[in-house]
Amino acid sequence: MEASGRYGRLLLTPIAVIYLVALVAPISFFLVMSVFRYSALDLWIPTVTGENFARLLGESYHRAIIARTLKIALLTSVGCLALGYPLAWYLARTTSAWRGVLMFLVIAPLMTGVIVRTYGWIVLLGSEGTVNSVLRGLGLIDRPLKILHTEAAVLIALVHILLPYMVFPLFAALAGQDPDLERAAHTLGAGRARTFLEVTLPLSRPGILMGSALVFTLTAGAVVTPALMGGKDVQMLGQTIYELTMSTLNWPLASAVAFLLVLCQLTILLVYFRVGRRRVA
Amino acid sequence: MSPDSPVVGPARASGRTGRLALGAVVTAIYVFLLAPVAIIVFSSFNPTEANTFPPTGFSLRWYAKFFESAGFVNAFRFSLWLAIVAAVVATAIGFLTAYGLVRAGRRGQGVVQSLAMLPMMVPHLLISISLLLALLVVPVPDLAALVIGHVVICLPFAIACIVASLEGIDAQLELAALTLGASRLRALWEVVIPLVAPGLLSALLFTFMVSFGDVYIALFLSGPGRTTLPIEIFAYMQWESTPVVAAITSMQILLIIALGLVIERLVGLRKIMRV
Amino acid sequence: MAKTILELQGVVKRYGATLGVGPVDVDVREGEFLTLLGPSGCGKTTTLHIVAGLLSPDEGRVMLGARDITRLDPQHRDMGVVFQNYALFPHKTVLDNVAFGLRMRGTPRAEIGGRVRRMLDLVGLPGVEARLPGQLSGGQRQRVALARALVIEPTVLLLDEPLSNLDAVLRKRMRLDLRELQQRLGIATIFVTHDQDEAFEMSDRVVLLNGGRVEQVGTPEELYDDPATRFAAEFIGETNLIEGVVAATTGATIAVDTVAGGRYDAFAPGRSLRSGDPVYVMIRPERIDLVSERPSGAVALPATVVKRVFAGDIVTFELRTDHGLLLHCSKPSLAEYRALAPGAAVWAIVRDCRALPRDGAAGA
């Protein structure tokens, strides 16, 4: 409608203000701090220096954490994709009356919060936990396996927690496909596998990209799950930021870590979307 | 819980085995998804202190412990209050934004809508720290920063819910109301609001759940007298690990299920999924 | 001469650099059924929306009687609008839907019920007040939309392709019902459609639009017998168009020499044509007589039947004249015409024809 141009801008003002004031401005300010100098007294001195990045990229301790975070983030994305795709495909294609319930069962864990689900994995994987109890009960092992406080534990928990974030975009992409496309492929002689590879999969690429990007973001910034599942043995960037901010109070360094995180994220996003745009015109 | 209806696809000999295989895989994934949650609920009835499963008996002592603990109960009440405030504010702003997006024409709607989803693409950790930093610079009450932080992370969900609902409403309905003599505001009240009510309600419930379950924003922005339940649990879990956590989370799960069923009844989750 | 209720003066609407519609100069008279006719994208709905106040024109004025309402918002225009998809409020009952406009006008509650019921009777839907739009059929919803627009007793009724979503049978019936209702109420009506049959069946006058411009305004007879442009001739009914040049003008008759050979005496009412002007000779298919033997006196063209299509009440022919001209001809389904098979030799007599202006240089 006509006057909506004017109204439109007015209606979008509140969110624009909130995002600018509470999101963009503070984050920019925080990220800028990565080039400031650390001071034990003032928290930061506004002189430009590269020492924070030098420390991050120079010290092997930090480099290891960065490498580990990237590794786990990528593996989590892959794991979520592997598990999430069949789930999303099934939900998008099924005609079962249970569909609504099944979808709810995917969101429900999400809504219980990170702590809840991490706790569940502690119960499962702890030395007195379910897995160990079962294995001991079956006589397969004598002493409990150390599963907690390993990268594997963190990975499993993260995949579990972030799976819904992969399923949604995939579901949206798959559900939005015209079912006639697959039928057309079949009538042209393509088998199920062929149809999937040549029609369904490529068309679901936007969903894959969105889901992977989302999972990557959430993994890279995770604190609670790595802390509880990995403890001191598995340090990731999220925990580093937390410690630097709350314990060590080295904010410039924390900012540098955050900056690096955002940089990695943006790079991955760029790579994903460049790859995506080239193929799917 | 095993799905029993056929998946849409061609009727071929290989179809049957393919479907069974898919069904098995999907069931396994669901088990993976829900087992930890189920385990929590069961172990909350554990009479002993250990985090074992299956539980060795049945006891409600951990539920009692929760209600006895002033720390947990206060945190629960605070989380509740915070979630209600964040939900209402996020839904209100979300409605304005969604209406502006859907009705204000096609120019750049896609871009603006993606921008509205910004908080989802930024690690909540970063949002939280930045707000904490802002607090050092700008004289804003700490509580306000916490509320604002929650509103920010809730907005994308509210907007998604309401946009999904609004898009299903014929744009001509408002035009019709106008030609019949209604002012824009009257048309909004008589036509749009009643029809978008399910979307508004589901936005409220979704944002409530998001706020209630948040850890990262509260991690940096809570403080004495302002602790949310997840933070309280997190702190507790650093030192001890008893099934009282299981009890609390079981109650939370029950809450979520109840709210989720309400949403499903109202709007149908399918529509919201089309984010 | 009937009073003018509504007038569009020089109305123009642009979308960026593209012309939406205009300039439009149209008047709507008291009690008249005026149709805006044209292919999709011709600007007819845009024009209707401008009249309703849902769009503002970039140039020109909309006059309601003596009032300039161009900038007045739709809320105050006192017009009844029926949208293509009916736009019934899905959450309100039929009664509440129809009563909506009355409520907005502050009609006393006691009065509303009665007026709504009377209107529903009038549109042929007694007893459905308590139902929701979702429980009605397409045809019923259409009538509710109509009732809702009419119950407020508007000055002008605006209908945006209200019959497009109905199936063919229902559509035909609704045309009659709608026209009858409109005549009974005597309300000035603007009707938008792309269906030429519909426009002709229902209208007092038709405004033919194409690409945003007004091609012609007139009664259905005028449009059919004397189309002003090539587009008008082709959009309305079937036609034959023969390229030619004006040879001479004698009073009302224009003599045209055609490219294919042969001279025709055509009429061109309301147009000034001079020798040398490029024109089309327009012949309606039913204005060609067919005989098997050469007639005496009248000018006749020898021709062969190329194709013959039996269409129930008429038979249509494609004829090739001896100097290579292809003509379409339609005759009533009588024995003598049904007997003409492809290959038959006939004589074609052109009863009357028109001369239409032709753009551009003479070409093949």
Quick gist of this model?
By secondary structure, chain A is mainly alpha-helical. In chain A, 75% of the residues lie in helices and 2% in strands. Chains in contact: A-B, B-C.
Question: What are its keywords?
Answer:
heterotrimer, B: 275 residues, mainly alpha, MetI-like fold, 13 helices, C: 364 residues, alpha+beta, Rossmann fold, OB fold (Dihydrolipoamide Acetyltransferase, E2P), 2 domains, 6-stranded mixed beta sheet, 20 strands, 24% helix, 36% strand, elongated
Radius of gyration of chain A: 23 Å
Instruction: State the order of secondary-structure elements of chain A, H for helix, E for strand.
Output: HHEEHHHHHHHHHHHH
Number of helices of chain A: 14
Q: Runs of chain B with pLDDT <50, length 5+?
A: 1-13
How far is the first residue's CA from the last residue's CA of chain B? 26 Å
CATH superfamily of chain A: MetI-like
Oligomer designation = heterotrimer
The CATH class of chain A is identified as Mainly Alpha
SSE series of chain B: HHHHHHHHHHHHH
Coarse morphology of chain B: globular
**Which whole number gives the mean pLDDT of chain B?**
82
Number of beta strands of chain B:
0
Number of DSSP helical runs of chain B: 13
Q: Structural class of the helices, strands and pairings of chain B? A: mainly alpha
Work out the largest interface and the residue count of each chain: A-B, 96 and 102 residues
Q: What proportion of the residues of chain A form beta strands (DSSP E)?
A: under 5%
Shape designation of chain A = globular
Largest sheet of chain A: 2 strands, antiparallel
> How confident overall, as mean pLDDT of chain A?
82
Number of domains of chain B: 1
Distance between the termini of chain A: 32 Å
Task: Write up what this structure looks like.
The complex is a heterotrimer of chains A (281), B (275) and C (364). Chain A has 281 residues and is mainly alpha-helical. Chain A has one domain: MetI-like (MetI-like fold), CATH 1.10.3720. Chain A has helices at 4-11, 13-32, 51-58, 60-93, 99-112, 114-125, 130-137, 151-175, 179-187, 192-203, 205-220, 224-230, 237-246, 251-279, and strands spanning 37-39, 43-45. Chain A has a two-stranded antiparallel ribbon. In chain A, helix 5 (99-112) packs across helix 6 (114-125), helix 6 packs parallel to helix 12 and helix 11 (205-220) runs antiparallel to helix 14. The longest helix of chain A has 34 residues, at 60-93. Chain B has a single domain (71-273), classed as MetI-like (MetI-like fold). The two termini of chain B are 26 Å apart. Chain B has helices at 13-43, 61-68, 70-103, 109-116, 118-121, 124-137, 142-167, 171-179, 184-213, 216-221, 229-239, 244-266, 269-273. Chain C is α+β, with helices and mostly antiparallel strands and 364 residues long. Chain C folds into two domains: 4-230, P-loop containing nucleotide triphosphate hydrolases (Rossmann fold), CATH 3.40.50.300; 238-357, OB fold (Dihydrolipoamide Acetyltransferase, E2P). Chain C contains nine helices and 20 strands. Chain C has a six-stranded mixed beta sheet, with helices on both faces. In chain C, helix 2 (94-104) packs across helix 3 (109-122), helix 2 (94-104) runs parallel beside helix 4 (138-150) and helix 3 (109-122) packs across helix 4. Chain C is elongated and about 75 Å long. Chain C starts with a strand and ends in a 7-residue tail after the last strand. The model of chain C has no long low-confidence stretch (mean pLDDT 89). Classes of the chains: A mainly alpha (281), B mainly alpha (275), C alpha+beta (364). The interface between A and B is large, with 96 and 102 residues.
